[in-house]
Amino acid sequence: MTNLDRRQFLGTSLIIGAAVITPDMALAGASPAGWALGVADVEADVPQEALTLVQGKVPVGLSTTLFRNGPAKFRRGDSASGHWFDGDGLVRRWRVEGGKATLAARFVDTPKRRLEAKLNAMVQPGFGSPRRNGAVINGPDDTNAANTSVMVAGGQLYALWEGGSATMLDAATLATQGPKTFRRDLKQMPFSAHPHVDRDGTVWNFGGNGQNTYVWKLNPDGSLAKAEMIALDRNSYFHDFTTTARHLIFVLQPWVQEEFKFPLSTGMSWKPELGTQVLVVDKDDFSKRRVFELPAFSFFHLAAGWEESDGTIRFDGCLEANPTFGQKSASALLRGQHIKAPTPMLTQIVLRPDGKAEMQTTRVAAEFPASDQRMAGLARRFTTHVTGYRNTPFPHAIAKWDWQKGRDDKHDFGDDHLVEEFLFVANGAGERDGWLIGTTLNLKAQKTELHLLNAAKLSDGPVATWQASLPLPLGFHGTIG
Amino acid sequence: MNQLKSIFIAVAMTGASFSAAAVAQDDSATLTLSFTGIAEQEGAVMGVLVDSEDAYNDKAAPLRMIMIKADKAEIATQLAGLKPGRYAIKSFHDIDGDGQMGTNPYGMPTEPFAFSNNAVGNMGPAKWAEAAFEIKAGDNAHSIEIK
Fold first, then answer.
1. Which of A8-22, A124-138, A467-481 has the lowest mean pLDDT?
2. Which of A363, A435, B17, B81 is 20 to 30 A (C-alpha) from A372?
3. Distances in whole angstroms, Cα of residue A179 to Cα of each of A159, A207, A234
4. Measured between alpha carbons, how far is B104 from A229 in angstroms, rounded to an integer?
5. What's the angle, vertex CA A368, arms to CA A262 and CA A39, rounded to 5?
């Protein structure tokens, strides 16, 4: 690492932390100590291994695959990613079948990863990472970390990021097959990490934010159905959107892009005086649009929405008072620092037919909202979410919020566990008839664990828990394959 | 995101670039120019040969226009009557035959492009200094991988 790099790296930390940071301290996250294990580096792919059942009994007949993605390589040589969102994507495949469970994990082989491995330095810019000496940028996919989520569409597995192409992966080997071009003229068009899927399998997604966003519609077989640019009313940054049966919903937070520069987040400003707008677009006619006004909030994730018979639209999200987490805390994590940020709160947003909008908070801390995919576009009763934010930057519990009864059904894994996203696997017709499957990082055992919980009673704790042979850093999002 | 258009590469090769007539040359240097790595064997590889930094940066007319049918993985052409000196080539694979380098809705190139010396751009086209190569009297050969 050059002196310039080191100065830049320290410069960031000096702005946001009062403590005097030495280079050694700044890289404290590299050593597996405490919660920093959640943002530690993985050096190699993980060949398929059998997991050890450490607790419980595997339900007979359960067969499911959980694909997950998340950044797992942040440091090379003396340099480091400037942000949690900028590490190299490691796709993990957790499989339960015939009473046994396995794990395999493989890094997505991106131009970014190849270049940085060759230079033994993190040089490519990103959301919170600067462009350093040696960076090569000739298009969005040169900086594509392929690290945010996964999607299975038309039988094809993809690793997703938000600023570039979806990356095709072989589901059997997890080998990278290359960027997906849905149509020749759409090469390198961003395909975000948060597609929303209709009950018939139609996939909706967006790509890019700013004055416009690009809307993707894929057929259930994974082929392109429609792709069109739509204008936004402000240069808002957003990581997720949501849908109802009839509408696309873009929440335009007042975290606005004022200029294009690296790191990308340094070109964005928080302007709460603008409030938050909600843009509702007709799925069948993008020119039909309505805008609702709400007080300012920031967010990363939204859950599925629905319409009621009178036209009222409801959806929920994990809303924050401001974007401190994305602006500062998620960078500090990689240096082993915990900068407190406003806790994301599970909140329902209601858009009335008369044009009025309101927010109904649950007063429950929540992130990574998920719901029964079969309920897409329908009124639903539950939202699964991580919770239990205490002394670390990461959650310790998994819960299911009951919108009807106004309460959480929760299991707290304890201080030793950092909890990742859990997803619902159905085993019956109802929203609670099935399991939640997900992972935690066991800091005491220094191993990642796969858990299965009864979706009807999370408070009972895991039905079954398996342990991997190693710890993996915390991932972001997954899908049931 | 649409600002990407101005920030990321935009290899400016419009139809106008190709209207420049070839200038008669006295000298006898010859360049055998080949393009390799052609994945989609249709359309043509289009390019310009320039003999100055100004021409490279579209501030002066290019010396020659290049157009080679892209019907094989490796294609070549001969450019004769060149003066010995420094030259550079900017090229793209016009797969769809519309005479222009295709771009996606955010302005990113969608057709393969390349520069002489296989020089790589960075937030813009490769620089003249990296793309310039020497043509000497007599026979010369230069190969560009286009992807």
1. A8-22
2. A363
3. 9, 15, 29
4. 11
5. 55
Enumerate the residues of chain A whose CB falls inside 8 A of the CB of residue B8.
137-140
Residues 6+ apart with CB under 8 A from A324: A339, A341, A342
Burial of A164 by CB count in 10 Å (0-12 exposed, 13-18 middle, 19+ buried)? Answer: buried
| Spatial distance between the Cα atoms of A238 and A329, rounded to a whole number of angstroms | 18
Q: For chain A, give every domain's residue range.
A: 3-48+63-377
HSE of A177 in the Cβ direction (CA atoms, 13 Å)?
14
A211 near B CB under 8 A:
yes
For residue B135, the enclosing domain spans: 4-145
pLDDT of the residue at A4: 30
The pLDDT, as a whole number, for residue A25 is: 38
**Which residue of A181, A188, A212 is the best one to mutate when testing the B interface, meaning the one whose CB has the most B CBs within 10 A?**
A188
CB contact under 8 A, B106 and A186: no
> Measured between alpha carbons, how far apart are the two ends of chain A, in Å?
41
Which residues in chain A have their CB less than 8 angstroms from residue B7's CB?
Answer: 260
Written as six digits, the tokens of A369 are 């909202």
Query: Best of B108, B111, B113, B130 to disrupt the A interface by mutation (most A CBs within 10 Å)?
Result: B108
* Closest by CA position to A262, among listed A12, A88, A29, A77: A12
Here the tokens at position A354 are 């008369």
> For the ranges A95-109, A422-436, B12-26, which has the lowest average pLDDT?
B12-26
Tell me if A80 sits within 8 A of A100, measured CB to CB: no
Q: Label the pairing between strands A357-365 and B113-115.
A: unpaired
Nearest to B92 by CA among B142, B22, B17: B17
**Mean per-residue pLDDT for A123-147?**
96
What total of structural domains would you count in chain B? 1
CATH number at residue B42: 2.60.40.10
Residues of B in contact with A214 (CB under 8 A): 105-106
Which residues in chain B have their CB less than 8 angstroms from residue A136's CB? Answer: 120, 122
Q: State whether ipTM is beyond 0.90.
A: no
Which two three-digit tokens encode residue A444?
A: 């005491």
**Side-chain half-sphere CA neighbours of A25 within 13 A:** 11
